[in-house]
Design goal:
alpha/beta, Rossmann fold, 4 domains, seven-stranded parallel β-sheet, 12% strand, globular
Amino acid sequence: MPETAATTTPVSEVLAKAVTALGGQQRDGQVQMAGEVAEAMQEGRHLLVQAGTGTGKSLGYLVPAMLHDKRVVVATATLALQHQLVERDLPRLVEAVKGVPGLDTSYAVLKGRSNYACLHRIRAGVPDDQGTLVDVPTGSMAEKVLELRAWAEEESEQGGSGERDNAPRHTDREWRQVAVNHRECLGASKCPFGAECFAELAKEKAQRSHLIVTNHSLLAIDAIEDVPMIPDYDTVVIDEAHELTARVTQAATDELGAGDIERAARRATRWTADAAGDPAGDLEDAAGALAEAIEATSPGRIDNVSTQLADALVLVRDAARACLSAFPRESGGGEGEGDAGRTQAKGMVQEVFVNAERMAAGSQADVLWLGEARDRFPARLHVAPLQVWGPMRDKLLTDKTVVFTSATLMLGGDFSAVATSLGLKPTEREGSIVAPADDDTVLPWKGLDVGSPFDYGQQAILYVARHLPQPGRDGLGQAQLDEICDLVDKLDGRTLGLFSSRRAAETAAEAVRARLPHLTTLAQGDAQLPELAKQFVEDPHTCLFGTLSLWQGLDVPGETCQLVIIDRIPFPRPDDPLMSARAKAADASGGNGFMEVSATHAALLLAQGAGRLIRTMTDRGVVAVLDPRLETARYGRFLKASLPPMWSTIDPALVRQALSRLGQA
């Protein structure tokens, strides 16, 4: 790993220079964070930093990352933050500190291979499910795919990145016609366009850079799945760290359906036709056996695999293994498909084999479930890790220095819940979903809350509608709808509604539209989210109601949003296969599955949802929780301690007066 000459300039001085150049203001929390991050990197100690909205945490870790004498990786959960870092924060920071001696300001962005256009697929044609080359797509996709191809060629000519984020607007299905995953890729040495490959050029730039910006999923694949994707590095800063466990779980989750197997078998046919027997036909027969087993299985978590399902998975595994062995060493596909077609076909069969083998193994470390069939999509099997703290500890925490940061890392008032889920904080229970106490491989760590520049006690009210009935399974009741309409009316709009389900959001929107027709009421699904957010910002007499993507992904500072309504505590669904399995495992090990899994999940989402309200020093408003359990249940104290320190009340009249004053102002 390349080392850079460390500058002798103190981190506080470089930070001050950057803040001044960027026209910002010195923040005590940001200064404290930068100093602690620099110290953690130097000492090789893990650090958890809670930095509230408005702290300026990006500079709080980017400056010490640039000052560090070894390569640093920054991993984000969302494309929005990654885009902000690469397109705004880093270029401005590099310009601000270019006079500091000994500072390596080189940086690169690195994403998974499927996020880059593939020049071979674009220029050599796209094999369809049967392996037939399709030079020009047909049907409604044709125009868009041709547009994507033209864009990619222009990117190549002009030295662009070929990244999906920069491409013309498109769907997932359209993008798959111009991209490949890592199993389908020929490899730079075999590909005739390897020297021009966008993904390879991105890796080469990362290899030359001091700072690499990537995402949680790629970090997980590189560090935990043992698929080398990122050049060797010393330290990783994980921003939006509250989402890391979910992203690592997502990266380690596999799916398998009969359709996947049938497509792989069809693609393999032309390459295995000369083998003894009919390996591709056997694989297609195995797909039929799995389809029958799935048909006989109820959707949901599968604790006891039936004999029929177990036999079908073994049949698929063995047929896929035999099919892989039947592929020729050299291509002989003809019709110009060559190595690309063989690699892609073999990659599809390999994926079927790996997933079937994992599901057939029946490991206690995995959770297996059957999803429900939806519309034209048949039911599929899913498998995910029961816990991720072990792999994270073994593959990441023991080898690298890790800085975790987010606005919400302290749940219930401390770092314990998050730290245990990451494998940092040991507990007394062997076999728990968190790290056991006698595990001496857990490295030292420190938790730090640098606070927020906002005065939540003066700027925000937390209102718990204790007088309302407890939420039922049938969605919003009349009492909740009356409360929503009354609160919205007092403020005359400016309301963000965060709901536990799409049905609840739509029901609330219909009620507000009927009773308050002078307001504009938008519901998630009425249009694309960016379009809804734009309309919400432009018209103050607007309400926007939606579900999970609004809880975490919406940033609307100012008077646009002065009331955040949360319909109920966002516990995971009781039938959620993975969450219920983790709660069951915690109970079995002597813990409290409800608190470790359900309450922690709810606390994190509540904190994120409440955080939508105060985004600047001048914002004012109310967070209204319509679930009385936040005030009456024993776990309510834990949940409230996870929220920003707002002034709290259960008085409906007082809140209505406050909203009326805001509305008039």
